[in-house]
Amino acid sequence: MPGIAPLARYEITTARLRLVAGDPALAPAVCEFQRRNRRHFARWDPPTAESFYTLEAQAARVALGLSAFDNDTAYRWWLVDATRAGGARMPSSEVEVIGSLHFSQVARGAFQSAMLGYALDEAHVGRGLMNEAIVAGLAEVFSPRVNLHRVQAAYRPENVRSGRVLERLGFRKEGLAPEYLYIDGAWRDHIVTSLRNPAFVAPDGW
User: Fold this and answer.
1) Distance of CA 155 to the CA centre of its chain
2) Mean pLDDT of the chain
3) 124: which residues sit within 8 A by CB, 6+ positions away?
4) Confidence (pTM)
């Protein structure tokens, strides 16, 4: 974006994915992703209003995410399957979004931390794509440009698949947070995990 120099890259390419952040043209594809997976995500996500599934709401969400990206308060990338015909070349207005990766609540000062969230299209579960995306995202937020020290992730004990993903990536369990989030009709316990950056560089003045 002209005149803007975010700490993280707007687009990251992996073996099978494009992680795309800074493109308002993604809104229709994001909206379709949310609608397509509404039932699939309901068990794991906080409740959402009917208006959440409108193009207007998702366009505003994409714009808000881009603003946060530019201001170093959150980093969200939308996942595109680069192995599909055109996936690695098409403009964002023509691609299918199959997931999201979100480092939210970026805190600086003595904390230098963020919260990790992620979601994958039901049709693409079991291919190792979420692991691939998180590895790329962690490399970016732990890079000298963004330089976070710690990333926290929490998951419901029932979500065994998510727990295994985090364990493979080296996240360590820190404890159980009772009634952590209101999800699927009740307050749900979550297991809290974290991963620390071994290459963290202390800012000037520390």
Assistant:
1) 14
2) 93
3) 81, 98, 99
4) 0.92
